Amino acid sequence: QVQLVESGGGLVQPGGSLTLSCVATGNLFRVMHMGWFRQPPGKERELVATVNSAGSTVYAPSVRGRSTISRDNDKKMTFLRINDMKPEDTAVYYCAQGKGQWDYWGQGTQVTVSA
């Protein structure tokens, strides 16, 4: 059973930056795809960014150009940095792992963008 634990959430001012971290357990991290999702208040969960086992990345249009997803296979960690944060980035952010489908999810970390 894989466990994912996110950290790094909090209150950010508009225009600021934030880096979220996710650490995973398990022995297959290197071959698994990793993703970040978010659920804004009153809305459904949505994809933010993914990085596959080869390091290729995909970004949602809402964050493309101002965010970076990365992974450290040795530390079994994945990261999401978002710059120029906007109030609409306010959400619970989740880390996920899978291959073909997202099998494992973290508990989420709250990010609030407000002055």
What keywords describe this structure?
115 residues; mainly beta; seven-stranded mixed sheet; four-stranded antiparallel sheet; 0% helix; globular
Topology:
Elements: E1 4-7, E2 10-12, E3 18-24, E4 33-39, E5 46-51, E6 57-59, E7 67-72, E8 77-82, E9 91-98, E10 102-105, E11 109-113
Task: Give an overview in words.
The relative contact order is 0.32. This protein has strands spanning 4-7, 10-12, 18-24, 33-39, 46-51, 57-59, 67-72, 77-82, 91-98, 102-105, 109-113. The protein is 0% helix and 51% strand. The chain is mainly beta and 115 residues long. The mean pLDDT is 97.
Main sheet makeup: 7 strands, mixed
Query: For the CA atoms, what is the radius of gyration?
Result: 13 Å
- The fraction of residues assigned to DSSP E strands is over 45%
Give the end-to-end Cα distance, rounded to a whole number of Å: 40 Å
Q: What structural class do helix, strand and pairing data support?
A: mainly beta
Summarize, please:
The chain has 115 residues and is an all-beta fold.
